[in-house]
Amino acid sequence: MNKNWIIFWSLGFSGLTLPVLAGVKFANSLGTNGIDALKLHQSPYNLTGRKIAIGQVEIGRPGMFGWDKAVSKNRAISPAAVFLRNLPAKANIGIDPHAYNVAGVMVSQDKAFPGVAPNARLYSSAVLSTKRMGQPEECLSAQHIALQNGGDVRAINFSFGEPLDRDPRPEAILDGNALLTLCIDWSSRVHDVVYAIAGNQGKGGIPIPTDNFNAINVAFSSEREGIFNKVHVSNLASINQGIENRLDGKEFNIGGRRAISLVAPGTNIPLLNPDGKLNKSTGTSFAAPQVTGTIALLQEFADRQLRTKQPNWTIDARRHQVMKAILLNSADKIQDAGDGLRLGMTRTLVDKQNQDWLVSDAYKNTKIPLDAQMGTGHLNAFRAYQQLNAGQWKPDAPVPPIGWDYGTINANSVQEYGLQKTLKENSFVSITLNWDRLVELDDQNNNQEYDMDETFINKGLNNLDVYLIKENGKNNEVVVCNSVSEVDSVEHIFCPVPTNGNYKIRVEFKKQVNEATQAYALAWWTVAEK
Q1: What predicted TM-score, i.e. pTM, was given to this entire model?
Q2: What are phi and psi for residue 352, nearest 5 degrees?
Q3: Which of 20, 51, 265, 345 is deepest in the core (most CB within 10 A)?
Q4: Which tens digits make up the pLDDT trace of 446-458?
Q5: Comparing C-alpha atoms, which of 283, 13, 4 is closest to residue 163?
Q6: Is 468 helix (H, G, I), strand (E, B) or coil?
Q7: How far apart are the first and last CA of the chain?
Q8: Rounded to the nearest 10 degrees, what angle do helices 288-307 and 381-389 cross at?
C-alpha cells in the first residue's frame, strides 16, 4: 500500500474514481437490472423526491451553481444549501469531486444520468479533514445537517468514515462506542433520520461508524451480464472463522454482530464531475447514496398518502425505523420463478464466493438475522415502494398479506399480528423487525444539542425477537420460523411456508436492558392462497 493510498483512506473516502474510456458501456444502476428506481420517476408514480430534504456529510462538499466557480458551467447538481461543518460554506472552499459524484447519485438533474431523487433538496456539509479534525467535527456536521429544513431531513448520506487508527480511544475496536458511531445512533433517534453509511472496504478501510446499530450500512454489487447481482470482492466482510477471529473488532464488529444491512450497485457507476465531464466510479461511496435517494422517493410517496388522507397511513411512515424495515424487508434475495412463491423477487444475489442466501448462515441459523456480506439482500426501490404502499396495520385486528407497522412493546410481553388470509404452501415469508439502541447525549450545558466537548452515554440494546407461528386451533401453535439474535438491532425471517394454513407474526420483548417500553418497526411480505 503506497503512501498516497494511505492518505486517501485516512481522509475517509470509500470509492475509486476513474476517467471514462471511450466506448465504455454502463449498466444502468437505476434501471430494472439495478435498483429499479427509474420506474418510480414515471407515470403513474411520478416520484422524484419533490420537497423531501436529504443530507450529505463528507470531507468535502459539492459545488453550488452561482456560488462556486468550479461548477459555473454545470447546473446538473444544485444543493439547497452547503456548509463548512455547522457554518455556511465559503465560496470556492472545500469543493470536492468525490462529494460532487456522491451528490449526483442522489440529486443529479442531468437528463442522461439522473440521480435517484433528482428533485430532492440536498443539504451538504464539508468537514474538511485535517490532522486536527476528527469525530467531534463530523458529529457536529451531521447534527447541523439533521437540523436543516426546519428539522425535517429524512435521510443523511455518509460516503466516508474514520479508520480505527485515528480513533483517540486506547486500543480502539469496533464495539459501537466510537464517538461518531454513538453520535449516529443518537441522531437517528433524536432527529428521526435514516443514516445510510458506506460499508467498509479495502485493507485498513473506514470501519467507523459502520459499527452503528440504528443506521443502514451498505455494501456494493457488481454486475454480471448487465445485472447487479454479485457482492463486489473489495467489500470488507467476514468470510471464514479464522479471518473473522483475527480481525474481530478491527475490521468487523466485535462479538459477531453483523454490519451490512443492504447491497446496492457500486461498480462502474457513471457520474458527472464538477466540470461536467463524465467519470466511472466504483465503491460503497456510490452505493450508499442510492439508498439515501430511494428514501427520498419513498418519503415523497408517504407525504402524498398523508396529504390525501389515505386509510392505513399515519406520520409513522416518516420514522427512520419504518424506512429501515421497509428497505430491508423488500430487498431481493432469490429470483422468483414467475409463480410468486418467492415474493416476486427480481434477481438472485450471490456473495463473493458465489453463494446465495439459501446456503448462508443467516438462512440456516435463527440467531443470525443478516448475512455478513449481503445483509438482507439487494436494494430494490420499486419493491420497497410496494412494501410501503401496503400501508400500516396494527395488531388489534387481522392484517393483510403485505404491510408494516410502527408500535411499542413492554418488557416481557408480546404483540401478535394475525394474518387475515391463509398462506400458500411452499411460498416464502419475509419479515423484518428493527429497533434502536438507546444512546443519550451527556448534555453538559443543557441546550439539547451536541457541542464539541460533549460525549454520549451508551444505554445498550433491548432484546426483541420475531416469530412466524402456525395456528392449528386452540392451544395448538407451532413456531415455523424465528429470528432470535442476542446482539443485533434487527431480526429477519426469510423462510418457506410448510403447509397451507393460518399464521401469525409474534414480536416478543425478550430482555430489558434499558427502558421498559421499546419502539419498533415491523414489515412483512407473504403470499396468500387465492
Answers
A1: 0.95
A2: -65, -25
A3: 265
A4: 999 999 999 999 9
A5: 13
A6: strand
A7: 59
A8: 30
